Amino acid sequence: MQKGYLVLNGGQAFVSESKEADRAWLKLLRGRHNPRVVVVPVAAMEKHQRIADEVTRYFSHLNTYAQSAQITNWHMANTETEYAVLDKVEAIVLTDGSPVDMIERLRGTHTEAALHRALLRKAAVMGTGASAMALGGVLWFAHDWMPGLALAPHLAFLAHHNLFRMRLTPEHLLAGLPEGVTLIGIDQTATLICHPDDTYQVVGQGSVCVYRSATQLDDYPAGSTFALG
Fold first, then answer.
1. CATH number, residue 14
2. pLDDT band at 76 (very low <50, low <70, confident <90, very high)
3. Count of H helices and E strands in the chain?
4. Would residue 157 be called left, alpha or beta, if left means φ above 0 and alpha means ψ between -120 and 50 degrees?
């Protein structure tokens, strides 16, 4: 049973404008000490260490104990000295990059298993942009749906939704969506927090759109909470 939090950012993360949203979900994890955060740049296409260092500094400034794990390929995702820390922290943060590469690098690895375990305890898994899309049951890629890492198997996440919705009709997006999967679009400046009780909280500055059907799109601005049932 899920006890943790899945956190999805629409693509504009780790900047001053996103601090309020990140404080909101970090607050859910705070106990007697500041949360421990590990940054995983597995979706990045290049400059993995530089990206990891920048995001680690960002979270250090939010009163967390932040570090990075150099999980950048399938081999490192199965290297115990890198993935072991994932079970010891309160938050795992996945950076932006390529969703398809991220899935290929993590599929069937110890790191993928650790991401799933994090949601079974009171921890958070946070993705932004490409990594957010990779965490759903399916991923929109090349005008079709392909299997994601399924941390939320009944959901599909569309980052940069404020841009996508100008180019793709609901009919086009929903045509091949597997039965039982709900599509959620997340604006670049929005962050969606999926709570263990199956409620959803929108924080940040943008909005989140739930595709109930091709003719019913429900928009939820920052500050909203909603359920899918």
1. 3.40.50.880
2. very high
3. 9, 14
4. beta
